[in-house]
Amino acid sequence: MGTTTFTGPITAGDVLDTTGTTVGTLKNVGFVEMAQSYAVNQTTTETATATTIVIPAYSTIVSIDLITTVAWSSATTTYTISVGTSATATELVSATNANSVSKIALVPATLAQSTLWINTGTSDIQVYVKSGAHSVTNGLGTLVVRYIQAINA
């Protein structure tokens, strides 16, 4: 299957400018939601790992999900994953349990995290992940980040 690449944010809608006060004359153009994914392994992410996910400047993060195929496990009950923009890997999502096979919604837990989700700022950001210590079994999954590109520009 072929792919198409656009270099800027994509908008869609058939009324570009408001010309009246009723539906059909009100602007209805909106931004298209984008997504990137990255395969994660609990063993290799015990220290913060830079992913290939890069979110463009001025974007709004809509969701960060971990879809697990093997649950995170640990002898010390530290079966967590955190997500961030640096080696601390906590700027976007604090440590969250990943001890089940499911789609796990990772959500901001602090005002600073929520603020970064609303507007990623003036520079592109690379996403990092970090897991708690693993046991005999290593968690496996895919991190999926959905965002609206450059909506705050």
Written overview of the protein:
There is one protein chain. This protein has one domain (33-148). 5% of the residues lie in helices and 40% in strands. It contains one helix and ten strands, in the order E-E-E-E-E-E-E-E-H-E-E. The protein has one helix at residues 111-118, and strands at residues 11-12, 30-31, 33-41, 49-55, 60-70, 80-84, 93-97, 103-106, 125-131, 140-148. The strands form three sheets. The protein has a four-stranded antiparallel sheet with strand order 3-10-5-8. A hairpin with an 8-residue loop joins strand 6 and strand 7. The radius of gyration is 18 Å and the shape is elongated.
Task: Give a quick summary of the entry.
This protein is mainly beta. 5% of the residues lie in helices and 40% in strands. The strands form 3 sheets. The chain has a 4-stranded antiparallel β-sheet with strand order 3-10-5-8. A 4-stranded antiparallel β-sheet has the order 4-9-6-7, with no helix packed on it.
Please tell me what the overall shape is. Answer: elongated
Quick one: how many beta strands?
10
Note the gap between the termini: 32 Å
Task: Tell me the β content.
Answer: 35-45%
Residue windows where pLDDT falls under 50 for at least 5 positions: none
As a percent range, the share of helical residues equals under 10%
* Secondary-structure element series: EEEEEEEEHEE
Instruction: Tally the structural domains.
Output: 1
Mean pLDDT: 91
**Largest sheet descriptor:** 4 strands, antiparallel
The strands making up the biggest β-sheet line up spatially as 3-10-5-8
Coarse structural class: mainly beta
Estimated radius of gyration: 18 Å
The helix count comes to 1
Oligomer, anyone?
single chain
